[in-house]
Amino acid sequence: MARIDVNHVRHSYLPNPQKDADFALREVHHVFEDGGAYALLGPSGCGKTTLLNIISGLLHPSHGQLLFNGKDVTNLSTQERNIAQVFQFPVIYDTMTVYDNLAFPLRNRGVPEADVDRKVRETLEMIDLASWAKKKARGLTADQKQKISLGRGLVRSDVNAILFDEPLTVIDPHMKWVLRSQLKQLHRRFGYTMVYVTHDQTEALTFADQVVVMYDGGIVQIGTPAELFERPRHTFVGYFIGSPGMNVMPVAIDGKTATLGSQRIELPGAPKAGSGAVELGIRPEYVRLGREGMAVQVSKVEDLGRHKVVRAKLEGRDISAVIGEDETLPADPKVRFDPAGINIYADSWRVEMEA
Amino acid sequence: MEKTWNNKAWFMVLPVLLLVAFSAVIPLMTVVNYSVQDTFGNNVFFWNGSDWYTEILESERFWLSMVRNLIFSATILAIEIPLGIFIALNMPKKGWGVPVCLVLMALPLLIPWNVVGTIWQVFGRIDIGLLGYTLSSLGFDYNYVNDPTDAWVTVILMDVWHWTSLVVLLCYAGLVSIPDAFYQAAKIDGASRWAVFRYIQLPKMNRVLLIAVLLRFMDSFMIYTEPFVVTGGGPGNSTTFLSIDLVKIAIGQFDLGPAAAMSIIYFLIILLLSWVFYTVMTSVDAER
Q: What ipTM goes with this model?
């Protein structure tokens, strides 16, 4: 297991990158602590996989440095880094049996056959394919194949880190949940350093202690699931995490009051001055519907079973609110913002408020 | 539901039937006709039963041609398949090298058979040929006209030069279809270069390799033009393969009956081998 330092790493797929837009990874400077479970969360094309491949050594970064336990590994090959990685689509050696597939990474490293056998059997139990051990891998279904890929990632116990690149995409929802809990359990048992790339927020929030949200080639926020939810540092995090995402609306600030069109909103404190456009962000969970407050026009109500999502217009802008399953809409609905859920953004970045 | 029977459909297949009849069935039947009769000219035929077949199957000449042909096919397969795989593995996967290599590889395939024969016939001549002249001036005793070994070497070299490209192109197509993730996973798993070839590249190429083996075997088993142009089947009978022998009997000696019988036997052998290959290929498919 290792602590992974990503030191000012930049990467471009172009031979001669000039401007910022040429970089797939603009700049990442972050420490993955030894034994941590991290999720890299972000939309497609934000650089998650690039970062992962740089850590595993499949890619050599254009700039910057990578340290494992303080030792520079930037120029070491994937083999020398001793990393396990699981890919999005199943990779199996289809002329081998299921057993041999799992034994492959161990045998390549000259592990004694008795240890190979013990580790492989243990892993087969874990991924629930023990009865398939002697079968040829090519006849399996897509999710069984992906379990083999996963198993090959978990079979070595001495790895520096295990990286997952959206490994559960091809697995059906129930199995997804089971495998995710198993990964979590493994993490607790063995304390692997795990980095898990995904664009699925539920997956990220349930798997990781620390979620690293990436956007447009950079890290926008690192935090616990609760932090990401309550205090998104960037409006993108607000949109991307939560369903529906955060309501963001342009406002004018004067001391402890924000003005939205003809409405005035009391803030919990006075925001520090920031540059650029000022916006107010509030999660639908903190928007209260009732008979008092600002008038809204409700356009539709989505019943999601556990709660309802109300889509409405406030001062001509779309706003969503979450209400309980048993609550009903008043005849003349009005909204109030719970001060605890209000965040102020200047130029898309969150600014602190002084009480 | 009652099926509607409509015999009009038969008229639709008629053109194909006619075409196949004229191009394949009728000529084949005339061959069958010759193979069971004897003729002394003037279109007078005598029923001869299976005599010609017995004669061919008992003749040493036929079996010698057959053995030569099998050795030839086995040799070129043993050279072209590994060489083709080796070249395909070393071809660039991207960049300007790809079109350059592909065009270079395709060139020999674009040359007509008899031209290939002529090229090598001249190339190997010791008086004016680049290869022959160079070899003999270096002190090698090379002469494909009167040394059977040299004739064989020349014919095999020619076939390798002409057809390895086909194997290369087929293998290359197989190789480029392997997703990058396989190579990445192999790196993570610490696989050696050999293990990558053995467990990723070779299994992914096995379909195209089967096709390559089939095509090269069939083609080499029926080879005629190139050795005919270069050696004419000689020296002696050393490079007389089945089809060259067949033409010698039919056109050279004008023994129509034995030639026809030999054609039929030859045809049945190829039919049998095609069936074997087809069965092997489809059973490999079914296993997937």
A: 0.76
* Structural domain range at position B228: 60-287
Helix, strand, or coil (residue A170):
coil
Burial class (CB in 10 A: 0-12, 13-18, 19+), A145: buried
Domain count, chain B: 1
Domains in chain A: boundaries: 4-230, 243-354
Closest CA to A163 of A314, A281, A294, A53: A53
Q: What six digits make up the tokens of B223? A: 């080879």
| CA B242 – CA B248 distance, rounded (Å) | 10
For residue B37, being part of any structural domain is answered with no
**Could you give the percent of chain B with pLDDT greater than 90?**
20
**Residue ranges of chain A whose pLDDT lies below 50:** none
Q: Let me know if residue B109 belongs to a domain.
A: yes
Residue B6 pLDDT more than 80?
Answer: no
Q: What is d(CA A186, CA A209) in angstroms, rounded to the nearest whole number?
A: 14
Total residue count of chain A as it appears in this document: 355
The answer to whether the beta carbons of residues A299 and A312 sit under 8 Å apart is: yes
Q: Which CATH number fits the domain that encloses residue B255?
A: 1.10.3720.10
CA atoms within 13 A on the CB side of A258: 25
Nearest CA in chain A to B180: A91
Query: How many angstroms separate the CA of residue B104 from the nearest CA in chain A?
Result: 28
Using a CB–CB cutoff of 8 Å, tell me whether A13 touches chain B.
no
Res B173: pLDDT: 92
Taking residue A1's Cβ as centre, other Cβ atoms within 10 Å add up to: 19
Any domain includes B101: yes
- From chain A, pick out residues whose CB is under 8 angstroms from the CB of B182: 91
CATH number, domain A4-230 = 3.40.50.300
Which chain B residue has its CA at the smallest distance from A56's CA? B188
Supply φ then ψ for residue A213, to 5 degrees: -95, 125
| Residue whose entry in the numeric block shows the structure tokens 């398949």 | B81
DSSP string, A228-293: HHH--SBHHHHHHSSSS--EEEE-EEETTEEEETTEEEE-SSEEPP-SS-EEEEE-GGGEEEESSS
Domain spanning A243-354, CATH architecture: Beta Barrel (2.40)
Q: Å from B78 to nearest chain A CA?
A: 23
Chain A residues whose CB is inside 8 A of the B181 CB are 87-89, 91
Residue B234 lies in a domain: yes
- Interface residue B190 vs chain A (CB under 8 A): yes
Q: What is the pLDDT of residues B47-95, one digit of tens each?
A: 887 888 888 888 888 888 889 999 999 999 999 999 999 999 999 888 8
What tens digit of pLDDT does each residue of B154-175 get?
Answer: 899 999 999 999 999 999 999 9
- Tens digit of pLDDT for each residue in B227-263? 888 887 778 788 888 888 888 888 888 788 888 888 8
Q: What is the DSSP letter of A136?
A: B
Determine, for residues A78 and B288 on separate chains, whether the beta-carbon distance falls below 8 Å. Answer: no
